[in-house]
Write the structure tokens for this entry.
Amino acid sequence: MKYSKQRKIECQRSLFESIFFVAAGSFVVLLLYFGCDKAISPEKEFSGEPQEQQAEESRENVDGSSYGKEIEEAVSILESEEQEQLQEAAISAAEGCADLYKDIKVLDTTFYQLGQRTKEQRRETVSRMGGLGYVSVSKGINMENYEEVEMFYSRYSDGEEAQVTICDIYGDGRFGCRTFLYRAGKLQVYYVEITWQEGGVPILSHTSVWDLEEIRLTEKGYFIYTNKIKISHGNLREHYRIKPLAEDCRALTEKYISGLSYIDYNLLTVDWNGSNVEDIIMDTMFGDIYHMHTGEYLKVHGGRVDAEIFEEIMTIYFPITIEQLHHCCGYDADSDTYECDLFSVRPYAPFGEVVDYTENEDGTLTLFVDGVWPDYDSDYAFTNQVVIQSYEDGTFCYLSNVIEQKEMEIPVIKK
């Protein structure tokens, strides 16, 4: 049960008044005190994986700590025997990969909180499960046996009963096995979560069930499903990319596009080049650029950042001078600092995905980027052509952007 801060204050006020005015009722006061304390402490349980809703990762780390408050579950359309079979199947799938988890680090035995796995470790697990016949996937890794999801969707579209299980390998190595069901006109997910003990021993950690409002499979290969209610650590609409994306496009997305926002600044939402670069330099963008450069998340005190680090990074990643930064970025000469607004990440924002690229004769790279907006069932909301200049030290510079509206209106961000 969720209690607000005001409820806590009311409980404590009641306590103090009882002590002051009813000295003889000390026994009752003690009961009241402990009753308030218990009510304010939320009950916790080990719950499912958050979908890629967080910042780029914070995203990698957040997906390994999904403990939340209990939610009211739907009534499963599966018989108890069928539920047990799915649980056993999830354990069996994990046992097929047990040798890959002999080095697993259990950080907290109470909830079996695990250490993070590398992308290559997760890729090996996804590949192993695919070879065993399971539909498997992990963040940034192509789905194995995705054709089974297509078959499920085809049967659903024809009004036939169908089910498919997708095994998602989380950042810490847990398995989140979602069985999508269509039966008697009803859409539902039955979720089984597997965690690990020391030595690579899989155990069942959590099961749950929830209803779906709708599902959609886009032409480009996004399986988007809408929950009837927002589940713990989830969004109303969540998704998987089921069709494979070329590995070079994945790598280019990760290096140049992931972490950039379409809704907090206009780097990707307006046409620009070196002649009007000042138009897209905003204080809300520095945190993302800083993270690209350092791999760390920026800490800001008093809403300002030292000029030395601000100018060093911004003049690397954009064709802009220090004088221009002084003019457009809220520079204060007395403190030698710039304005910097660390906005809160919005969970339903579109994200960019490199689908093609061209290596230009002048050494630059043109990225062809599709804006994917699952909250609006769109994997082709708009397209970008982003020109990049890479340097030998691994840094790069955004030289220009051109955006074209497709399925959705382009977000308008006021500077």
User: Anything to note?
Assistant: The two ends are 42 Å apart (CA to CA).
